[in-house]
């Protein structure tokens, strides 16, 4: 602890090259933030509430509209459409705005292609808060279960097998829970326990999806209020 205090009060000598290397990532983050707050990208907040059809027909803030469309395509895990929209935005953007736009593109494509590590790095370079560990884990899991089109045939086959294994495991868990509950009423047949176990799994997944969407909606509302 004392060593940390002394180093803070009397920092060691650093050459100009070392200082430049240390400040370079921070300076780049500030530069990207400034690029997003001025010029064509500054129109992104006021266009976020528009529909995709309205954004496609947008002519005044075309670069911002294409960037939003690219981000929305990435949220649908459509990497091809996201890349096409961002390329259109890059073509019409001012040269000074392209670094920030490229970082947005990297983050969006990392999401669309289920690359959690690249997504975290791209978000940090944008100066934004990186996704939580749980969100990155879910994205990594989705990459295993539903790999992108560029992953190849073996990855798709592996994803199908993992989905089948997951379905069987969930059905087994649901059946076991129903049988345990049925013991209190004198037992229940195997066929009935499988059926009610399937219903239990469906209801549980539906509740989880509903809660997840509500949480996502609250996060989007808070981001919009903060912006």
Characterise the protein shown here.
With 227 residues, the chain is mostly helical. It has two domains: 23-138, no CATH class; 152-215. It has eleven helices and no strands. It starts with a helix and ends with a helix.
Which characteristics define this entry?
single chain, 227 residues, mainly alpha, 76% helix, elongated, disordered N terminus
| Count of the separate structural domains | 2
Strand content: under 5%
Quick one: overall form?
Answer: elongated
Order of helices and strands: HHHHHHHHHHH
- Give the total of beta strands: 0
Report the helical percentage: over 70%
The largest sheet, given as strand count, sense and whether it forms a barrel, is:
none
Overall radius of gyration:
24 Å
* N-to-C span: 39 Å
SSE diagram, text form:
Layout: H1 2-9, H2 16-37, H3 44-47, H4 52-56, H5 62-75, H6 79-92, H7 98-112, H8 116-125, H9 133-145, H10 153-183, H11 190-226
Helix pairs in contact: 2-7, 5-6, 5-7, 6-7, 7-8, 10-11
Summarize this structure briefly.
The protein has helices at 2-9, 16-37, 44-47, 52-56, 62-75, 79-92, 98-112, 116-125, 133-145, 153-183, 190-226. With 227 residues, the protein is mainly α.
